[in-house]
Design a protein that fits this description.
With about 400 residues, this protein is mostly helical. The protein has a domain of about 260 residues: ABC transporter involved in vitamin B12 uptake, BtuC (Orthogonal Bundle). The chain has 17 helices and four strands. The strands form two sheets. Strands 1-2 form a two-stranded antiparallel ribbon. A hairpin with a 5-residue loop joins strand 1 and strand 2. Helix 3 packs across helix 12, helix 4 runs antiparallel to helix 5 and helix 13 crosses helix 17. It is globular. About 0% of the residues have low confidence.
Length: about 400
């Protein structure tokens, strides 16, 4: 066949290019490192970089947040002086945030609802107080033991309760919470009876201001552990179980095993929260650990935003400060509910909580986490996208009871 008949004649072969003489020259192969470097050096027109003024604005907001969290509760570099009662309220907000994160592991990651979480928190509180006062150990050992006891009771309960799912699982946890409230919390050798049990501050901490930073440090630890969990194989398996347990099972995921693991992690975090709850006031009694408290835990977690750490922390802190009356005082609403609505301040979270829950279910399924997502993305250097973090519906699990 002649060159005229050959349509490929005179054209370079695939993978080659002509040199200056017009003859094709084979292109040198490109190794993986060179290809990665070329891709990294390629311009990305869609990549947003804030201007200098934008970074300055973000820095100012970060500084203000750091001042509110790190300086204000401890009366450090602050023109506003908080009382010891208000500092204890700030500590309770941090403790509620830890408890909210513990429930988020169970509800948000594993898709299981616990209606008896006050039992885990209460047992953790009395365990830590018992270790410190009766056994004469340090506060930190009491926190560790409380966390381990929380994980152990979650393992024992989960081994039985997780044979069922959905509503039946929630009812079993409710029964467990009521049983602990009516029986275990009445064991005088553990709880100290009506008088309660002493729970002194940690060694070296002499005030409510210093104790706030102890709670804040443990919250940072819980946040880091939660972050690490979601980036492990177990965390990804939990998310798959929550999305669709049946499909996850076909992929070889041990649904019951990973759900028990989530239950144990939740109990571990709840034990830490309970220990901090006990030592906040210097003593602990069984009266607060009721089903009413369990409902507040559930509401604050859902209103905060399932699977959103920042949302859960903010939602939990909101309910804690509302229950203590500190938030009402800051908003100049002190006495409004008592005098106008004729509602005691301690019942405000139980009335306001369902209203916020209804608002979350209908308008903002992602809770507070959905509402702060645009600001969070902006603070991290992105554009302000008001649609960031949008969620269509509150999803726990698609499995019916």
């Amino acid at each position: 066949m002649s060159a005229v008949d050959d349509p490929t004649a005179g054209h370079p072969a695939p993978g080659s290019e002509p040199d200056g003489s017009g003859l094709p020259v084979e292109a040198a192969p490109i190794d993986a490192e060179t290809a990665a470097a070329v891709r990294a050096a390629a311009p990305r027109p869609d990549r947003f970089r804030p201007a200098a003024a934008g970074w300055i604005g973000r820095g100012v907001v970060w500084a203000a947040l750091a001042w509110v969290v790190l300086c204000l509760p401890g009366n450090i570099a602050s023109p506003v002086s908080l009382s010891a009662t208000e500092a204890r309220g700030a500590s309770e907000a941090v403790v509620f945030a830890i408890i909210g994160l513990s429930l988020n592991v169970l509800i948000g990651y594993a898709g299981q609802i616990s209606l008896g979480h006050q039992a885990f928190v209460g047992i953790g509180a009395f365990t830590s107080a018992f270790v410190v006062t009766e056994l004469g150990q340090e506060f930190w050992l009491g926190v560790i033991v409380a966390a381990l006891v929380g994980a152990l009771q979650a393992l024992l309960l989960g081994g039985v309760a997780l044979r069922v799912t959905g509503l039946y699982f929630a009812l079993i946890t409710l029964s467990y919470g009521v049983m602990v409230q009516q029986s275990l919390f009445n064991v005088e050798s553990l709880t100290g009876g009506v008088a309660g049990r002493d729970a002194p501050l940690p060694t070296g901490v002499s005030s409510a201001y210093g104790y706030y930073y102890v709670c804040l440090g443990l919250l940072a630890l819980v946040l880091w552990l939660d972050w690490r969990l979601t980036r492990t194989k177990a965390g990804r398996a939990l998310l798959a179980v929550r999305e669709n347990p049946r499909v996850a099972a076909t992929l070889g995921i041990d649904i019951r095993g990973y759900t028990v693991l989530a239950f144990m992690v939740s109990g571990f975090f709840a034990g830490i929260g309970g220990a901090l709850f006990a030592h906040r006031d210097g003593f602990v009694v069984a009266e607060p650990f009721t089903f009413q408290l369990a409902l507040i835990f559930i509401i604050m977690t859902v209103v905060g935003g399932l699977r959103s750490r920042s949302g859960v922390v903010l939602g939990s802190a909101f309910f804690a400060l509302m229950g203590d009356g500190i938030l009402l005082k800051l908003l100049r609403l002190e006495g409004f509910f008592e005098n106008v609505v004729k509602l005691p301040s301690e019942f405000v979270p139980l009335v306001l909580g369902p209203l916020l829950l209804l608002l979350t279910l209908t308008l903002y399924p992602g809770g507070i986490g959905q509402q702060v997502a645009p600001v969070r993305g902006w603070l991290l250097g992105g554009r302000f996208d008001r649609h960031a973090g949008a969620v269509k519906e509150v999803q726990v699990t698609d499995v019916r009871a």
